[in-house]
Structures are given as structure tokens and as C-alpha cells.
Hints:
Elements: H1 4-9, H2 19-81, H3 85-115, E1 124-127, H4 128-145, E2 149-154, E3 159-164, H5 166-182, E4 188-198, E5 202-211, H6 233-236, H7 245-255, E6 261-265, E7 269-285, H8 292-305, E8 307-308, E9 313-317, H9 321-330, E10 337-341, H10 344-353, E11 358-362, H11 370-379, E12 390-394, H12 401-408, E13 412-415, H13 420-430, E14 437-438
Parallel strand pairs: 2-4, 9-10, 9-11, 11-12, 12-13
Antiparallel strand pairs: 1-3, 3-7, 4-5, 5-7, 6-7, 8-14
Helix pairs in contact: 2-3, 2-9, 3-7, 4-5, 5-7, 10-11
Bound molecules: adenosine-5'-diphosphate.
Amino acid sequence: MTTVAERYANGDYSDDMNTDSKDEIGILSRALQTMSTSLKNQIEIADTANRSKSIFLANMSHEIRTPINAILGFDEMILRESNEDTTKEYAANIKNGGRILLTLVNEILDFSKIESGKLEIVPVEYEISPLISDILDMIEFRATEKNLSVDYIIDRDLPSVLKGDDIRVREILTNLLTNAVKYTEKGGVTLSIQKLSSDEKKATLRISVEDTGIGIKDEDRGHLWESFQRLDEQHNRGIEGTGLGLAITHKYVEMMGGTLCLNSKYGQGSEFWFDLEQDIVDPTPIGLFKREAQSLQREVDIYREGFTAPDAHVLVVDDVKVNLMVVKGLLKDSGIDIDTAESGAEAIEKMKENRYDIVFLDHMMPEMDGVETLSRIQADPDIDSGSIPIIALTANAITGVEKMYREHGFADYLSKPVDPHSLESILLKYLPDELIIPAKK
Length: 441
Ligand code: ADP
């Protein structure tokens, strides 16, 4: 026996209706079918347009980041080498401007990724204390410039190791704290992380960022999470931003199962908060929160600035000459012997002739790109590729690239514009210990 619904779906209205009704339903059903086909076509057109947009954004990111790489790279050399205070001050301003430009490009890219549904939450195990320390280090630096205080209230009962997307958690906190500092002139900001509840497997944390800044008007609340929406333009003129930060943050919190909420009094300050549920890996409470990681980080930074490796042999491959000059310039004081190649083919030739300790290989190159070059290197019997760490150099800043590069067989990746610290830490990580000579203090 078929049900009435099944019969109707098959266009069989035989027993229940008179002829007029049947005709009408027939017409309606055909109209519906036409609409559904047209809708499917529209969706396909929209999907294709969306894909083109993603490709366009990836290319644009490459195009914009490549010149910024040159600007910031050479600027770093001026900062290191100039003895003139005024020149150094100009260079510091260029560095600041370049960083803001990079943040803007990255925000636009992340947002487009969210829009096209390509952003995934990737849960990994992470320790909560070092994460909080890093975030506080970052924000303290910005807050001090504005004479603002940074306070933190961290629950002693937080489980020490959790599982969740630590990269997104960092981005959320960075965004909220950066805004808190940006929109506050007097007073300070407070980060608070409390454990609301937990069982054996999961813990719910309440995370809040509070400031004593300009606050948000009641009538503006409705627009807060909208993209490209900046509020109170009159007050906020001169504060750089795209109006994307909160839209992205709001979406991330939502993707992790929470809701970003706001308490605010115009003229007095704001508090953004949300609840975050994470899996527990190690339930041991962190105890009294100490910012040990900060001093550790500083030591590493000082150490990093002073190492040489004159016996190390490194190959850098990039089709843009100026990028090769930037890496060479940044490593000038390390004494490392650096060879360069301007194409995949040239890189393969050089690797046949020489033994390198590390190879930095650009991804987007004309003719043979980095991924293809790598697979040819791996297949070449004259190259002992298994023993050489090959690092992808990429101006493609879209999140999630790390996984993609590892899947292709790269040991790691370094994003352009090359950050001098990241470059040095990759060298320290992959160069054999015996080649590294720490500078005398
Ligand atoms: P923007 O790049 O402009 O900072 P956001 O999306 O991060 O963009 O924020 C959107 C708007 O919300 C800001 O332009 C600002 O008007 C307002 N806003 C965000 N955070 C705060 C805050 N802590 N205090 C006051 N206003 C804020």
C-alpha cells in the first residue's frame, strides 16, 4: 500500500479529487519542478562564482603579500643596520604600517573563507597556561604603548591540557583583547577565564574580556556582528580597522558551540564574553597561574638573535629575485652559506650538485610550482631528499595551509613576508645541532 503523500509525489491524485483540482495540482507540480531546476542552476552558478572568488582571493593574497615581503624585509635591515635615530624611527613606522596592512589582508581572507564554508575547526591537544601567557605577552606590549593596565583573573581549577582548536581560541582572544585596547583610552583591560563546570571528559570555560573604554551604544548592538560594520564612526575616526574582526570572532565562537555576548555601558566600558566547551586531556588543575612561558620566550628571543652557522649550507628557491635578497639579507650575520635558485628546474640542478642542510622552496612559481618541484626532487635518484628538510615558502596566507604542505611532504612552512624570528626558529629547529654556534653573551 502506498501512502497518500507517496502517491501525490508520483503525480497520482486519482481517487481523491475532481478533475479541476487534479489539473491545478498538475500545473502547480510542473511549476514547482521548473522552479526547483532553476534554483539548482542558480546554486551551481553561485557555487562557481564563489569558487572564482576564493581563487581570486588566494591570488590577491599572493600578489599583495609579495611586495609587502620586500618592504618589510628591507625595512628590517634598515632597522638593524642604521645608526641614525630619525631613520630608525621612519623605519619603525613603515614596519607598523606594513603589519596593519597584513592584518587587513589576512582578515579579508579569513572572512572569505568563512563565507565560502571552507573554514573547519581542527581540534588538537594543547596546554592552556602557555596559551594564556602568549596572549598576555602580545596584548601587554600594545597596552603599554597606550599606558593601559592589563589584568588577568585565571581560575586555578582549569584543567592543564585540553583538546580543541587552539589556533582559533588564540585568534578569538587576540581579536577581543586588541579591540579592548584599541577602543580604550584610560584604565585598562582584564582577561578572565573561569571553569564553569566539568565532568570526566569535558570542561566548560567562561572567557571574558573587559575594558574601561568608550563602550557601545544600545542602538548599535544590533550591528555589532555584521561584516564591514564599524560603529560610532565619529568617535572612532583615526582608529584603524575593517569592521571584520568581530564578525570573524563571532563566527568562530559559534563554530565552537558558543555565543559571543556583550555587556556594555556607553562611555564606561565593555565586556565581551562566551562559554567554551573543550575536551579534557589532563584534568590536573593548573594551580596559581604563572607567566613562566613569557620569560622563557624572552630568553629564546635573545638567544635566537645571536647564533651563527658558518658551516651550514642552505638553498633558497623563489622566482622573485627581491625575495631571495630579503632572505639573504636577514641571514647575513648568521654566516650561513646561502645558494639561491630562481626556478624549480634550477633548484633541482643545484640539489644534484650540492648537499644542503635545509631548502626553502617557494610555492607559487611559474612553470614548475613548489609542490611539483618537491615531487620531482623526491623522485630523483641523484638527490637524497629524505635527509633534507624542505620548507615551503608561501605568500598564500589562507588558514589551513600547514596541513596541506605537510601532506605534500614539506617538513614545515614559512609564511611570507618572512618574519625574522620565524626564519631563525625554523633554522634552529631543522639545522643539525653541531652546525649551530650560539653567540657569546
Ligand atoms: P574594527 O576593525 O573596526 O575594530 P571589529 O569588527 O573588530 O572591527 O569591531 C566592529 C566595531 O565594534 C568597531 O569598529 C567598534 O566601533 C566596535 N567595538 C569593537 N570592540 C569594541 C570595544 N571593546 N569597545 C568599544 N567598541 C568596540
